[in-house]
Structures are given as structure tokens and as C-alpha cells.
Amino acid sequence: MNSVLLEHFFPPKEPFSPPPRLRPNRSAPPLTTDEIATALSKCSPTSAPGPDGIPHSTWKQVNRINPSILLHILSPLVLLGYHPASLKSSNEVVLDKPGKPSYESPSSFRIIVLIRTVSKVLERIIAARLLAAARLRGLLHPNQCGSLPGLSTYDACLTLTNDVRTLQRPRLKVSSLFLDIKAGFDNVDNNTLARILREGGIPSYLVSWVSSFLGERSCTLIFQGAPGTPAPVNVGAPQGSPISPLLFLLYVAPLHFGIPRGLMISYVDDFALTVASLSYRGNIRRLQDLFDKLERKASRLGVSFSVAKTELIHWRTPSQRHSPKCIAPIQIKGELFHPGNSIRWLGYWFTPALDPAAHFSRRLALAQGAFALIRRLSPPGAGLPPYLCHRLATSLVAPILLYGADLFTPSVGTTARHDTFWRQVQRWTTNCFSATPTGILSVESCLPPISLMIAHRQRLAALRVVCSPPSLNPATARLHPSFPSLSVHRAPDFSRAITRGQSSVYLPLHWKTPRPVPPIRNHLPVDAVAHRTLPFTLGLSWMPMINSHLVCPAPVLPPQSLMDSTYSALKNRIREKLLVEWASLFPTPGYYLHPPALQPRPFIGLGKFVAGRIHQMRAGKGYLAAHPTWRSPDADTSCPRCGLEPETFEHAILACPSRQHSRSRLLHGVSDVGPGAPLWSSLPLLKRLATYIGVTSTGFPPTMFPPTTPPSSPPLPLSPPRVPPPVFRVFSLAEV
Fold this sequence. Notes:
Blueprint: H1 2-9, H2 33-41, H3 56-65, H4 68-80, E1 89-96, E2 109-115, H5 117-137, H6 153-168, E3 173-180, H7 190-199, H8 204-214, E4 217-222, E5 231-233, H9 244-252, E6 262-267, E7 270-277, H10 280-301, E8 311-314, E9 330-332, E10 335-337, E11 343-345, E12 348-350, H11 357-374, H12 386-402, H13 412-430, H14 438-445, H15 450-466, H16 525-532, H17 560-585, H18 608-619, H19 649-655, H20 660-666, H21 683-696
Helix pairs in contact: 2-3, 2-5, 4-8, 7-8, 11-12, 11-13, 12-13, 13-14, 15-17
């Protein structure tokens, strides 16, 4: 089995001939301790180590104690342009692909690569130098969006949707073909990549190091029953390496070319070809010609496209929703591909009319599935403390639910369905009842309503786009020329010019113009992004530029510290806008005075049961007598223990005479439970409050403590519980 897996995952290729002799390269800049510290800061201390078993935390501690150790280990390798064989050995963990009907084929398994951590440190250093050299010499295409700092899937999808809507303005038909490179990293040829780097003007020491890094590698497969012996392999760009994504991008950069009245954009190995003409059948012919051209370029690099993952879509405008759909297919390598009604690209679900309902319905289903798994960890009153529930809600459920919300805006009905699910998450986090008002529920859980979270994500994404360097971000390069950016660079392949001279209905709105009601005219998607930042940029003549250190050659810009502080101030304005809208659009009842906050409150670090009592009593929907319910709205609200006043939260904690002994012993220094009370920010006081609630059973369900008798009559003695006699079982000889 070991040999079969090796042959499947690492097919034999033409071996690379290493240089006969190593010579120091005097043009190589010396390695610095700052480069090592920067590389170590990007290494996760929890990532699995390689064959040597040394984690990143060990190297971080070594570098903290004596920075010269790693400097002396790695400096000769940079100077010689050499990666030793001892650092090129790795462990390959073989895992089953879930959901496969049979595991008799090697394709039913996948491999996790574990590389030596000290090798990853050197790879990050070389990757940073190689990226700067490639940017300076133009070896990366502007429309490559994947595995590069400052770029994400949102930038690629925003660029695609913006060009689609732009090409539709002059009433052209627009179509897109989505392609995927087959086994991308594994097909990187060492000799071809070295030629690309050498012809592109990359320094010779970097070319030598890359060639040495890709050649003469070995791996050890790890699975049950594996022999555990290293085997020589030719893996192309190894998976799991910090530099492999950059090497692959440089390898496939020659595949990109300009398309008149169209767009080619890629994200790592996912390509999208978009064309426009007067008819969809004309688009089919253009796409077939473009694919043939792209296939010829790919064959020269030794890569090919996966036919099974090819998809076609014919875009439509909202005004075409009643017209018949075009079903014209495209023929790729002898196979017909019909246009799809919904296509998934980079995690975004696209429909011909760019309807967001298809995307959000799938995200809701995924979030519901994830929540169904984690809610078992914390049932009502038990399990994980609320702060862990809050962390799961913000780091797991919310990202799944809101992925794509930066690009798409859901309809009112879709938002309502998301809100219904999100309130379940809020109740799970706080242990509050269903009768709790939704405004109080969101404030108590520190989880804003879905509509506000979507608007907040869209504003943050818009701010990042307009503050990115236009030469690095294809979406930023499509901003209107009048936008106050520090760079005048704009994308040469953008088709904004074809919108000029259109009638008023088809002419896009200027990015500063508000959208009219009803929306007779709209912005282009990138202009709508720029318009979202308009309320937060008052008083600014120019927008700051983030990641300006990645621009090569370095432009003349204001001090980086000034731009970073301005960008942080803009993010704070967006955060303040969220809090203001939260308080105004989702008000709480008059009796609840606590303001909205994004930071979880300290008392949620208590146990689930006690923290749930506090949430319920603060919300005014708990087991206290003064908290009315829909089942018994006319019930007696007087305190059942003292009978003097209504049993409110303040009375039960601060004034009830029946609890005076426990209060004087545990709540010394607590005189207020209002929003500004020191109680809510003091951990020692909160611990005393938790003890007080547990001792006095304040806010407990009535079935959890015996009913108290009126103060006028003496308490009745409680009889000890009857313990049933033990039951003995006689085992037979056969059972023994």
C-alpha cells in the first residue's frame, strides 16, 4: 500500500540536476535578525512539527534568548542559495476523505504534509524576498488574487461582479467560464520555474535556492501499518510549505492575458474567463477560442485544466427575469457544458441574475448544521461557560453564516430567517428564555442583530478595498478616477469607458451620489463600495493606503504611522456607527438600561448555570416574582421570602431582609446593580455575587429549592429522605 500511495500522489517526473558546486553569491543581501523575527511572528505555535518534532514555540524561545543562533544557521543557506536535504524531508499523514463509498482507490485518501519548522522559517524569509523581487519586475499579473498578502476571495468576486455589471450597461450579453487547474502544485516543473524566474530578472541566489528547494525531496508516509521509511519523491511545489503558493502563482502567471470587453481573473488555481458581445452564442464562440489559447499556454507549462470542474454561466440583468433563458452550451475537450442556474466559485454562490438568496440559503443551512453540533456542548444550565459559547458563536457560527455578506445584501425575508436562527444562538449563549425581548437578548449576548452585522462587515470590507494599493488589488484599481486615492493607478482592462454616452437609465450613478428611491439607477458594484465609506471620510482629503510596503517600487507617500493611525480611526468610526445603530434601531424596554457592547461582559466567565441566572435577572425575564410571564401575567409580584416588596433584581440582591445574613457576609461593598455599577467590572465582586446567588438560591427555578414558609410561623422540621435498601444480585457460575 505504501508504494501504491507514493506512485499515486508523487508520480515519477524528470529529475532535476543540481549544480555541481556551491558558490557564494556576493549579491545576496545578508540575512538580518529582523527578517527572522518577522518570519517567526507569522508561525503558529500550535502547528504540528515535522520529522524532528520541534515546534515553532521552541524556535521562538531560542530566538528570544539568543537571536544569533538562527542567524548563523540560516545565513549560509541564503548566501549559497541552497536548501539542504536534511530540511527537505517531511512526514506525510494519510487521511481518509469522508463520505467515500469505498477506500480501495488511492484517490479516496488525502495527505497532510508536516515540514520541519526551521525550514518553514527560512521559507518565509525567502518568500518575502521573492515576492518583493517579483512585484518589482512585474512577474505577477494584477488579476491574480490568491495567496498574496492584502487580497482575499472577496476582492476576486467583487472584481468579477463589477465587470459583469459594467459590461451589461450598454445592453451586451455577458458570459463566464470557470476553470480549475488539475493538481496545480504537483505539476510545478523545477526547470521551467527556474527559467521563468531567471528570464524575469530574479536574483540568481533566489533562483538557486528555489531550484534546490524543489529538488531531491523525500517523504515518509504515516498511516496504520506504514513501514516508516523515507522515500525519494518529486512533488513539484510541496503542500504545506509557506512558499509553495507563491511559487505556483509565479509559475502560472504567464497564463494570464488581456481580453477586450472581457476579464480574466484567477484565485490560485481557479480561473474565470468573462466575455461580452451582442449574443450569448457569440460569447460561446469567444470563450471556446479563449480556452484553446489558454490550453496551449498551459500545455507549454505542463499543466492542464480539470474538465469535470468546468462550469458555464450566462449572466442576466434584473430586467431580463421574464425573458427566456439562454441554454446554449459550450464544448470543451469534446464534452458539452450547459449553463448552470447556480455556480459556486470561491465559496460564493452566483446565479445568472446575481440573486443573493441562493447564496444565503446555503450559508444558513451550513450554519444550522454547525450549530446543531456545538449546542450539545452546552445544554441549558450546564456545559460550557457562556464566554466559550460566545467565542464559538463569533468564531465559528457567525463566519459560516455571514460568509459572502460583504458582497451580497440579503432580502428582507432572507434577513428575517437569519435573525430567527441567530436568536437561537443568542439564547444558547445567555441561557435566556424565549420570552426575553429581542433587543435585550442581543445586548445581553453581546451579539448584534444580523442586519447590523451584515452592514458592519460590508463597511469594513469597503474600507479595506478603498484603502488598498490599486496596483495590487484589482477591485481597488476599478475605483472611479475621481476617488481620493493616494495612487492614480487604475486597471487598464476595466471597461468603464463603455458606459459613457448611455441613456439616463443605463448610466451608472457617480460614487458620491446617493441611490434614489425607488432605485431607477444604481451604482456599479465598486462605486457602491466606495459610496459606503462616504459618511466616515468627512474631513479627509485623501484616503490612507494600507500595505503600502508591498508596492514596488515604493511610491512617495505620507508617513506609514500616520496612515495606519488614520485607518484605525476610520475603523473606530465604523464600530461606533454599529453601536449607535444598535441602540437606535433595536431599542430595549424602558426598564433595561444596559448599553450595547461588543466586548463580552466579565460575568459570563462564571459557570453556565449562575451566569444564566444573572442574564435572566438583568433581562427581567427570570424566576423572580416580579418578572411577569405570558402564562401568569396577573401573578403576585411580592417577594415570597419577605413579602415586603416586589421581588425585582435590585430587591433580591440589595434589599431583601430574608437574605440579609448572606448579603452582609458575601456582598460587602456591593450597593448598586445598575449599568454603571462597579459590580459588573470587578471580578472579585462577581465571584461573591455568584456565591451569594448559589447560597440563597436567588433566581433559581422553584423546583430546585424547597418552598419557604411564611415568616410568622416556625419552620417545620424536615424528615430525612428515605434511602432504599441496597439490592444484591446473585450471579450464576456461568456468568462468573
